[in-house]
Amino acid sequence: MKNLLSSVALLAAAALLPFASQAQSFRTYLASYGSDANAGCTVTAPCRLLPAALNAVLDGGEIWILDSANYNAGTVNITKSVSILAVPGQIASVVAVGGTEAINISTSGVKVALRNIVIPKNANNPGSNGIVMTNGSLLSIEDCLFANLAAVAVYVHDTTANVQVKNSVFRNIGSFAIQVQNGPTAVIANSQFLTTEGLVAYGTAVSTTSLTVSESTISNGSEGVWAYSTVAGAVVRAYVMHNTIHAIRYSLESDVTGGGNAAMFAGGNKVAGIYNWWISGGLIYSYGNNEFASPNASGTLTPVSRQ
Amino acid sequence: MKKSVSSMALVAAFLLLPLAAQAQAFRTYLASYGNDANAGCSVAAPCRLLPAALNAVLDGGEVWILDSANYNSGTVNITKSVSILAVPGQIASIVAVGGTEAVNISTPGVKVALRNVVVAKNANNPGTNGIVMTNGASLIVEDSVFANLASNGIYVANVSANVHVKNSVFRNIGQYGLWLQAGPNGDVVNSQFLQTQGILIYATAGTTTTGNVTDSTISFGDKSFGEGVYSAASGAGAVSKAFVTRTTVHGTQWGLDCESLSGGAAFMTVSYTTSVGNGHGFYNAGCTLRSLGNNHISDNTDTVGALTPTALQ
What we know:
The complex is a heterodimer. By secondary structure, chain A is mostly beta strands. Chain A has helices at about 1-15, 50-55, and strands spanning about 25-30, 55-65, 70, 75-80, 80-85, 90-95, 105, 110-115, 115-120, 130-135, 140, 145, 155, 160-165, 170, 180, 185-190, 190-195, 200-205, 205-215, 215-230, 235-240, 245-255, 260-265, 270, 275-280, 285, 290, 300-305.
C-alpha cells in the first residue's frame, strides 16, 4: 500500500498551503449581458469578458459562462489555475484575433481546464494559434471546437505540462491541430481532426515528449500522426491506438535527424492514406492488427507483440 | 371483484400514511433565485440549497436543479433514495468545503443518483473528498466533473454498494478518482482521469471488492508516481477483482497494478487495453493477472511479474 502513504503525504502538504487573497471568489461568472464594471463578477452581476473574470477569481477557482457569446477582445493570458466552462446548452467563443493566439498560458504550475468552448479565427482581423502554452502543469480541453485557425490550434512546448483533449473537434486548421514539443505528455481521445496538418510530437531539445491518440478520426491533410526528433537527447514517443486515419499524405510518420530518438507504437488503426506510413530514421512499431488500405509506404514497420 | 377490493385497500393504506410523508413531494426543485423558506421547494417556488430540497423530497424522489449555480454551503448528507440532476442546458456545483466532503451517503439501503453536476474544491476553504459513501445500496454518477479535490473524487468503503460512473471527468485529484474499498462493486465507463490516480479496487480481510473500467483514459502525467488501475487484496479472505477493457493508461508509475498482500487474493483481467509510457506497464505481485492477448503494452520502463494468457472464446 505504498501509494496510499504517499497520497497522505501529499494531503498533508496541501494543508500547509498559505491562504490566498480573500477578496477573490472561488467562482466568477460571465454573460453577454454582463459588465466588467461589476465587482466580483457574481452570478447576479456577471462580468462581460474573460480578463475581468480571471482577475476576480481565486487561484484554483472556476469561471462559468452563462450564455452564448464571444468572451475576449485580444489574447487571454491565463496566469492562475482555473476551470473555464460554458454552461451546457450554451457555448462560449474565444477568438484568435489581431495576429496573436486566443489563449496564452505561460505561468509555472498553473492547471487550466476549458470545457464547452469554441476557439475560431476572427475572420475580420485574424489571429494565429488557438492556445499557446509554454509553462504550467495541466491543460485539459473537454468538449471544445477549434475552427479555421491560421496556425496551430493547441501548441504546447518547452514545458512538462500534462495535456488532455477529449471529445473535441478540430477543423480547417492552417498548421497542426495539436503540436506538443520538448516536454509535454499528452493524451487525446474521442476527437475529430478534419482538414488539419494532424498531430505532431516534436523534439528539438533535450526532453521527453509523448503523445497518445486513441478512438479518434484524422482525415484530409498532409500528416496524420508524426513523431519527429531532431537532436540527440530529444526523446519523442507517439502511441496511436484504435483510430481511423483517412485521406492523409503521411498517415503515420516517424522521423529522426541529428541523432534524435523518435518512436511510434500503432495498434488497431484503420489507415487509408496516400502513404500508410513514412519512416525516415525513426521507428514505427506495429502490433500487427492495423488495417492499411494503401499500396504505398516508405520504410519498414517493426513488429511488436500484443500481450 | 377482486381487483376493486384490492384497489380500495391500497387507497385506504395510502390515507393512513403519516402526515410527514404527505407533506413531501415526489420531485422538489432548486434554483439560484430560490429561497429555502419556500415550503415544498416546488417548481414555481424553488428552494436555494440541497439540504432544503432533500428535506422536502419523498424517499425515492427527485431533486431537479433549474439553473447554473452552487447548491451547498457544507457537506450535503443524503439520507434517502434520491436522484439529483441539473436540467440539461444548466449545470450545478456542489463544493467540497471546510475540510470535509461535498456529499456524504451513510444510510442503509439508499439509492442515490447524481447527473450533470460539478464537484469541485472550494479554493478559498478547501474540503477533502467529493463523495463519501459508507452505507447504502447504490451510487450512480452520470455526466459529471470532479476537479481539484484534495482527497478522492469518489470514496466508497465498507459497504456492498453498486457504484456506476459514466461519461465523467476527474482531473487534478489528490488521491484517486474512484476509491472502492471493502465491499463495493464498481463500474467506470467512458470517463477521463487526468493528473489523477485512476481506480483503486481494494479488498480488506474477509471482503470482496470488484471494479470494471471500460473505454476510459487514465493519465497521471508522471511515470514515477501514481496508479492507473490498482487491484489490491490485503488480509485473509480478501478478494479484489478488476476488469480493464478498451482503456488507455499512460504516464503512471503503476499502470496496471495487481497485488495480493498479507494473504489476500487479487485478480485483474485486461483486454483491448493500452498501457504505454508508464513506469511499470503492469505490476503483478502475487496476483492472477489475466490477459486476453490483445493488449498494447509497450515502452514502459518495465513490466513486473507474469500475465496469465486467457483465450478469447
